[in-house]
Write a structure and sequence with these properties.
heterodimer, A: about 110 residues, mainly beta, six-stranded mixed sheet, 11 strands, globular, B: about 120 residues, seven-stranded mixed sheet, four-stranded antiparallel sheet
Chain lengths: ~110, ~120
């Protein structure tokens, strides 16, 4: 069974203090790994898709990286508006459309 | 439309009642998904439609849950004889099947509360 574990569960940072969120996964053949941002009371908002080990993608202060066992979401010089829950999900190969999500990391950026 | 829309945004019902939740996918997206998210958890897969047919309903928890997509666009998730444990946010997502990415785009969700 596919599994996704995210750590830490919660993270509080000062504005401008860079850090990384971790997503460890086990999947029977990875088709893609996805990062989403979720604000309270909203649906998940797509950030990145990574398909192969060594791949990196960037968007503003966020950079996602992928290895064969885990993914990192690096946040550089965060701002209060980056506060949200960040969700990681995996999609297996072989025609399975189901995304398996982790429980998320709740990030709080303190001004 | 610009994004996935879901109605109602909130639904409060009593135990034992029947509810319907609606999802309008992004225009042109042939793949549609339903997920359920409990407080403090990540979304959990319920069912996947490709066109009008349910291609994978392995996540539906029991036979009280049913979903349809009769014309290959709008979908309705139906829950019979609701129980308090059904309280959660029900999320819909859509994807352009056969497109260049596997990305699923989510709607804002329907918060279901069963009293």
């Amino acid at each position: 069974e596919d599994q996704v574990t995210q750590s830490p569960e919660a993270l509080r940072l000062q504005e401008g203090e860079s850090s990384s969120l971790n997503c460890s996964y086990t999947v029977s053949g990875l088709r893609g790994l996805f990062w989403y941002r979720q604000d309270p009371g909203k649906g998940p908002e797509f950030l990145f898709t990574l398909y192969s080990a060594g791949e990196e993608k960037e968007k503003e202060r966020l950079k996602a990286t992928l290895t064969k066992k885990e993914s990192f979401l690096h946040i550089t010089a965060p701002k209060p508006e980056d506060s949200a829950t960040y969700l990681c999900a995996v999609k297996p190969n072989f025609g399975n459309e189901k995304l398996t999500f982790g429980t998320g990391t709740r990030l709080t950026i303190i001004p | 439309g610009a994004g996935v829309s879901q109605t109602p945004s909130n639904k409060v019902t009593e135990k034992g009642k029947y509810v319907e939740l609606r999802c309008d996918p992004i225009s042109g997206h042939t793949a549609l998904y339903w997920y359920r998210q409990s407080l403090g958890q990540g979304p959990e897969f319920l069912i996947y439609f490709q066109g009008t047919g349910a291609a994978d309903d392995s996540g539906l928890p029991n036979d009280r849950f049913f979903a349809v997509r009769p014309e290959g666009s709008v979908s309705t998730l139906k829950i019979q004889r609701t129980e308090r444990g059904d309280s959660a946010v029900y999320l819909c997502a859509s994807r352009q099947a056969g497109g260049p990415t596997d990305t699923q785009y989510f709607g804002p969700g329907t918060r279901l509360t069963v009293l």
